[in-house]
Amino acid sequence: MLCFDLQGHHTEVRKNPVNLNRSTAAEYTPKIHIIADYIMKYPKITSVEEREKYKAVFNDQYQEYKDLHTDISNTLSKFRELDGMMVRLLRDGNGQEKQRIQSVLKKYQEKKKDPAFLEKKERCDYLKAKLSHLKNRIRAFDEENIANGEM
């Protein structure tokens, strides 16, 4: 089986099914490791030109990430504030108020699961990981070149 680590290096992993006893073998489910596209697309930097391309991609997508992160952080902050308010209202309200609050709470819970918001959050998480990957590749290239006296 061919596996990739976080740096995009591949190694061969062999499993020895003889070591598995019958009960373990019947319950064994191999883990699936999903490798993000940017891991393969942006391997170790080997030239200054390649470094500049990686830096351009980073700069191009950093503003999108910052905008998404700000928007999501604001939304999550509002959610936390509303969560606290709902708990207090449910605790302190009377029967009729509690029914109204439950109705509002149900609508609020649906908003928290809004596909558009979840998609934004997923895109933000993806960009964060991609930008981190690019930054680490650039840093590794720079450190290697400094160590070799090339920069």
Automatic annotation (TrEMBL):
Which segments constitute the OCEL domain? 36-146
One Pfam family of this chain: Occludin_ELL
| Highest taxon in the source lineage | Eukaryota
Q: Output the GO biological process annotations, alphabetical, semicolon-separated.
A: bicellular tight junction assembly
Give the record's GO CC terms.
Answer: apical plasma membrane; bicellular tight junction; cytoplasmic vesicle
* Similarity remark: Belongs to the ELL/occludin family.
Q: Which PANTHER family match?
A: OCCLUDIN AND RNA POLYMERASE II ELONGATION FACTOR ELL (PTHR23288), OCCLUDIN_ELL DOMAIN-CONTAINING PROTEIN 1 (PTHR23288:SF37)
> Per its record, how is this protein called by name?
Si:dkey-208k22.6
Q: Which gene encodes it?
A: marveld2l
